[in-house]
């Protein structure tokens, strides 16, 4: 009879240990999964911020190029006007 009680106690101990270990493994797996999800979200957020920064920089570069082109066009127009005046005066002087 003592042997049956000992076997029953051992079986209970093994059963309780199995449930305990199983719950620890399950909790650990969920914790790792949550941690991995957070890491992936962080990586995604970082990629989005990088993309937005690149987009903003590209927009700024485009605006600067456009402004520079306007300045060049304005300068060329001023140079052409000055050249036309000089040529006009030169022709007037020749006609005298």
For the record, give the distance between the C-alpha atoms at the N and C termini, rounded to a whole number: 142 Å
What is the string of SSEs from the N terminus onward? H
Instruction: Give the overall form.
Output: rod-shaped
Question: Helical region count?
Answer: 1
Overview of this structure, please?
The chain has 96 residues and is mostly helical. 98% of the residues lie in helices and 0% in strands. The protein starts with a helix and ends with a helix. The model has no long low-confidence stretch (mean pLDDT 77).
Short characterization:
The chain is mainly alpha-helical.
Highlighted features:
mainly alpha, rod-shaped, 98% helix, 1 helix, 96 residues
What order do the helices and strands come in, and which of them pair?
Elements: H1 2-95
């Amino acid at each position: 009879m003592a042997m049956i009680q000992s076997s029953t106690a051992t079986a209970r101990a093994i059963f309780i240990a199995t449930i305990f270990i199983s719950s620890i493994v399950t909790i650990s797996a969920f914790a790792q999964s949550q941690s991995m999800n957070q890491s992936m979200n962080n990586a995604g957020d970082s990629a989005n911020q990088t993309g937005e920064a690149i987009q903003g920089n590209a927009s700024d570069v485009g605006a600067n190029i456009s402004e520079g082109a306007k300045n060049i066009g304005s300068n060329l127009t001023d140079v052409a006007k000055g050249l036309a005046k000089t040529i006009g005066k030169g022709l007037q002087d020749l006609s005298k």
